[in-house]
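fyi for ur records
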Amino acid sequence: MRLAAVDPQKVLEERAKDIQARKPWARTIKASQAGECIIAGMVTAEQCRAAGINV
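which gave:
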């Protein structure tokens, strides 16, 4: 059985949604992963900090 390939863009989009919604588990997102969302223009550093991510 083969697993479906993960689309990196979809992963970024889901992380960004969690950060924007301040989901409780968003604080488990690593600063480097949040940084990728910031660089992609999906979230701001302020949104990340509000979600509990130290960027």
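The CA atoms of residues 38 and 44 lie 6 Å apart. thats all i got for now
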